[in-house]
Specification:
Number of helices of chain A: 13
CATH architecture of the largest domain in chain B: 3-Layer(aba) Sandwich
Strand content of chain B: 25-35%
Shape of chain A: elongated
Strand content of chain A: 15-25%
Shape of chain B: globular
Radius of gyration of chain A: 34 Å
Number of strands of chain B: 10
Radius of gyration of chain B: 18 Å
Helix content of chain A: 55-70%
Order of helices and strands of chain A: HHEEEHEEHEHEHEEEHEHEHHHHH
Structural class of chain A: alpha+beta
CATH class of the largest domain in chain B: Alpha Beta
Largest interface: A-B, 27 and 29 residues
Largest sheet of chain A: 6 strands, mixed, barrel
Structural class of chain B: alpha/beta
Oligomer: heterodimer
Number of helices of chain B: 8
Order of helices and strands of chain B: EEEHEEHEHHHEHEHEEH
Strand order of the largest sheet of chain A: 4-5-10-7-9-8
Distance between the termini of chain A: 28 Å
Strand order of the largest sheet of chain B: 6-7-8-3-9-10
Largest sheet of chain B: 6 strands, mixed
CATH topology of the largest domain in chain B: Rossmann fold
Helix content of chain B: 25-40%
Number of strands of chain A: 12
Chain lengths: 402, 253
């Protein structure tokens, strides 16, 4: 039998049983679409969470002072005055795999400008701070290394401070006063919004850490040191190196510092979204199986009718192979059509859902391939297997089949 | 006339049950070209089994079957399929048409499985001619469910004829039809036979057998009688008689 005739016969058979064909294709369509939509939405939500964690800065290790004990009273983390600028600079110099280190000072101060005042967080940082936190300047520029070295009275300010102190805008080039000292505003930060813990990241005045130590806090010790590693897989090693270095400096005294790894937070958050993806995937898997059972039922229920059909075809001179090729072509046509429509529907609906929710959509290729392969395999198997059995019967048996 | 069918001591035993069923036990038979044979017998006499063997739908357990001079007893499945396709036309009691498929496409079916390739137009043309022979060219686009039993059987005959077989085999072709439609089908057979087509059919109705030229009777898997038909019925005359009778009985206007 010529292949063109096989195609013709298969198309006629599909058209003949239009309802069965549509239902079979529908099983594939729903299974494929559900998997694609669920996995895409799950991936989108995951990347959303990852992005918001990344906005805290990537690969960050923080060093905080330990607890100070005065007269039997423990001061809690950060109360010890133990971290020095020298330690921060030595860490940057001596430990490999570090991109940047910023010694940090944090303080809340009343900030005055323009006849207005506002209590804001005044942070002393190095010039690399914005790179570490993945933050950018909206207007003006960041203070320079020269400013840090000379403990200059310059600052960059967050959007909340702009709103509170400079309601008519244009703060760059003007100055504000902290502890009665004038600081020149060299730049305005881009809005960053609230962080993971609900505090306003834009309510900030950033000055060089040297200026903070010398002019605001007036003490030699840092509030913390933040360290950015080159890559996530180096973080554990760097955390250990920093701990060892600081311990060694303390000559066997009790450690009065703590080294924390932001990775832990990121891991907790991604674990949550991973659970969500698995959940959505499981729901999708169930739809796939239900769709598969639908296909299976339709195929098996039609066995009687199709066995008689095979008997007729064999009786008028079809070879077993002709019949099998016909059934295979039918199954492939259905799978390809169902798969294509399923992909369109799945991608379309995930686009729609993400647009409504403002999520990013990440259509997963492996989900598409997996779902289509699974449905197609079920369609082909249950279309093909009964046909194979029938085609091996004698024509007269196939005709009598009930 | 040449020998179309030669059976030599054909046996068929079914082993499926507890006791082997000896359906056909030693049939020797020769049918020559242009014959019109009816095989009769009570149910269980083996006539349908013999028919299936003749139609290469089933294989004999023992014996030799020469079809058109070639031995077909030991051919494999595919060779038998080709034989059914090219040399035999088979008509079933239950019509065995593909449902939800037009008459024309049903008739085309054997040509799609032929070893020779024909264009879609040729196939369509041949199928129309075939339907024309059985007088159904005006029903080409009807589905089997839209046709009467007689019409469905005529579609089946057209399908059997499309590859111009050497012999037409019919297993109780009138078994599912009323008497008037049966006569109509026998008329088609007589017309085809007059054109030189060899026909073998199975029937258990004596009057239907009277339309044929030769009657064989089977009992317990053996041929017990082989007689030519003397007072052969002519379908056109019988049809005329039925129509007259119906008119008298005011069944039809």
């Amino acid at each position: 039998m010529r292949f063109i005739n096989v195609i013709k016969v298969a198309l006629r058979a599909l058209r003949r049983s239009a309802m069965r064909s549509i239902l079979t294709a529908l099983g594939i369509i729903i299974g494929v679409a559900a998997v694609i939509a669920m996995v895409s939405i799950g991936n989108g939500a995951k990347s959303q969470v990852e992005a918001s964690i990344a906005s805290l800065g990537q690969n960050i290790i923080s060093v905080y002072p330990g607890s100070a004990t005065t007269g039997g009273m423990h001061g809690g983390w950060g109360s010890a005055s133990s971290l020095t600028v020298d330690e921060a600079l030595t860490i940057r110099r001596e430990i490999s795999g570090i991109v940047a280190v910023s010694p940090e000072m944090r303080d809340r101060q009343q900030v005055l400008a323009n006849g207005l005042n506002w209590n804001s967080s005044v942070n002393g940082e190095d010039v690399t701070y914005l790179d570490i936190r993945l933050w950018t300047i909206a207007e003006g520029e960041m203070f320079t290394e020269g400013d840090v070295n000379s403990a200059a009275k310059v600052c960059v300010i967050g959007q909340t401070v702009v709103a509170k102190l400079f309601p008519d805008g244009d703060p760059v080039g003007r100055s504000l006063r902290i502890r009665n000292l004038p600081f020149k505003i060299v730049g305005v930060l881009k809005a960053k919004g609230f962080n993971y813990f609900g505090s306003d990241q834009d309510d900030v005045v950033i000055i060089p850490y040297t200026s903070h130590l010398k002019r605001i806090a007036r003490r030699p010790n840092l509030n913390s040191i933040i360290i950015q590693a080159e890559s996530p897989d180096q973080m554990t090693r760097i955390q250990q190196d920093v701990t060892d270095f600081l311990q060694q400096r303390r000559n066997g005294r009790d450690p009065d510092f703590t080294v924390r790894n932001q990775q832990e937070l990121a891991e907790a958050a991604t674990a949550t979204t991973k659970t969500m993806t698995v959940l959505l995937g499981a729901i999708a898997g169930v739809s796939l199986i239900v769709g598969g059972i639908g296909i299976m039922n339709i195929m098996l229920v039609s066995v009687t009718e199709r066995t008689r059909e095979i008997g007729i075809r064999l009786a008028v001179g079809a070879h077993g192979r002709d019949v099998l090729t016909q059934f295979l072509v039918e199954a492939i046509i259905l799978s390809v059509m169902g798969g294509t429509l399923g992909i369109l529907l799945g991608v379309g609906s995930s686009q729609l859902i993400s647009r409504l929710n403002g999520w990013p959509v990440l259509v997963s290729t492996s989900a598409i391939v997996g779902a289509v392969a699974f449905s197609a395999a079920i369609g082909v198997f249950f279309g093909f297997y009964p046909a194979r059995k029938a085609a091996q019967l004698d024509p007269i048996e196939a005709l009598r089949y009930e | 006339m040449s020998h179309v069918v030669q059976l030599e001591d054909i046996h068929k035993t079914y082993e499926s049950g507890e006791v082997p069923v000896l359906a056909v036990r030693g049939v020797t038979l020769t049918i020559t070209g242009g014959e019109f044979v009816a095989i009769m017998g009570a149910s269980g006499s083996g006539k349908s089994t013999l028919m299936n063997l003749l139609g290469c739908l089933d294989r004999p357990t023992r014996g030799r079957y020469l079809l058109g001079g070639t031995d077909v007893s030991n051919l494999d499945r595919n060779e038998l399929a080709d034989l059914r396709n090219q040399k035999l036309g088979f008509i079933f009691q239950g019509f065995n048409l593909l449902s939800r498929t037009t008459a024309l496409e049903n008739v085309e079916l054997p040509m799609l499985y032929g070893r020779r390739h024909f264009s879609t137009r040729e196939i369509r043309e041949r199928a129309r001619q075939s339907l024309d022979i059985v007088g159904l060219s005006n029903r080409a686009d009807h589905f089997p469910s839209q046709l009467s039993g007689g019409q469905q059987q005529r579609v089946a005959i057209a399908r059997a004829l499309i590859n111009e077989p050497q012999i037409l085999l019919a297993d109780e072709p009138t078994g599912n039809l009323d008497s008037k439609t049966s006569v109509e089908i026998m008329g088609v057979f007589q017309k085809l036979n007059a054109q030189g087509i060899t026909i073998v059919m199975v029937t258990h109705e004596l009057d239907i057998a009277h339309y044929c030229k030769r009657n064989l009777i089977m009992r317990d898997g053996r041929l017990v009688s082989d007689t030519p038909v003397v007072d052969r019925l002519v379908a056109t005359e019988q049809m005329q008689r039925i129509v007259t009778a119906e008119t008298d009985a005011k069944l039809i206007a």
